[in-house]
Amino acid sequence: MVADASKDNEALVMSSDPDHPANLICELCRNFYRLGWVTGTGGGTSIKHNDHIYIAPSGVQKELMKPADMFVMDFPTRSYLRKPPVHKPSQCTPLFLAAFDRGAGCCIHTHSQWAVLITLLVERDFGKEACFEIQHLEQIKGIGKGRGKVGNLGYFDKLRIPIIENTAQEEDLTESLEKAMERYPDTYAVLVRRHGIYVWGDSVHKAKAQCESLDYIFQLAVEMKKLDLPWL
Ligand SMILES: CSC[C@@H](O)[C@@H](O)C(=O)COP(=O)(O)O
Ligand SMILES: [Zn+2]
Question: Does residue 181 come out as left (phi exceeding 0), alpha (psi in the -120 to 50 range) or beta?
Fold first, then answer.
């Protein structure tokens, strides 16, 4: 039976299981807020569980969200099974869907200042995406080799994260995000200049670990730049 999104459909988001996606999104965003990743309503997280996509509301303080605030979308039909009447779904929804279309189970969007600083340190490459590249850091081993590939990058592998230009509206980033995903099929992240980053993974655990590894690498890379140390 198809659920009627105009009804509350509370059962889709209310669970005593801490690993239920509606509970996890709230918990993750509370932790991400403390890292400065989702302050001032910016950033967010979405989870795909089977055919259900769990999406946070737009424009709310992401660290204060409750499971009852979550939208639930049916992935195959892209129709909402649950729409809390007081909110709109996150403006990042089409970008999260781009990651889910490519097999992700979770997508995290942060406004981390380290990510933003990296986009300011890598020059614009007209005609194609610019790309942040770094090598010879142990934490690179925290990033997967790529979609459909087993295991993580090695210490001697080069980490490449494409950078796309920001747009006035979040949803207008979708086309360039998808282009970057096609041009860099092994990437699990895309930086957005002067804005932040989208990071995804096959599971919540992998998306979170990759987001943490990348943020660590970005911070280190900014400090390396200040000390005139090379990234490659
Ligand atoms: C500080 S506003 C930031 C938004 O424009 C956007 O970039 C963002 O990350 C969050 O969008 P939202 O629709 O609240 O989920
Ligand atoms: Zn944003």
Answer: alpha
Question: Mean pLDDT score of the chain, rounded to an integer?
Answer: 96
For ligand 1, whether the C-beta of 88 sits within 6 Å is no
Q: How far is the centre of ligand 2, averaged over its atoms, from the C-alpha of 17 (Å)?
A: 29
- Is residue 3 very low, low, confident or very high in pLDDT (cuts 50, 70, 90)? low
* Residues making up the binding site for substrate: 92
Question: Does residue 25 sit in the same domain as residue 116?
Answer: no
34 belongs to a structural domain:
yes
Q: What is the pTM of this model?
A: 0.96
Q: Tell me, yes or no, whether 84 and 171 share the same domain.
A: no
Distance of CA 160 from the midpoint of ligand 2 (Å): 21
State the residue range of the domain holding 208.
111-232
Say if residue 1's pLDDT is above 60.
Answer: no
Residues forming the annotated binding site for Zn(2+)? 109, 111, 195
CATH of the domain at 210: 3.40.225.10
- 7/85: higher pLDDT: 85
Between the CA of 155 and the centroid of ligand 2 the distance, in Å, is 31
ipTM: 0.98
Ligand 1, atom 3, lies closest to the CA of: 42
Q: Cβ neighbours of residue 68 under 8 Å, at least 6 residues apart? A: 10, 13, 14, 84
Q: Are residues 227 and 139 in the same domain?
A: yes
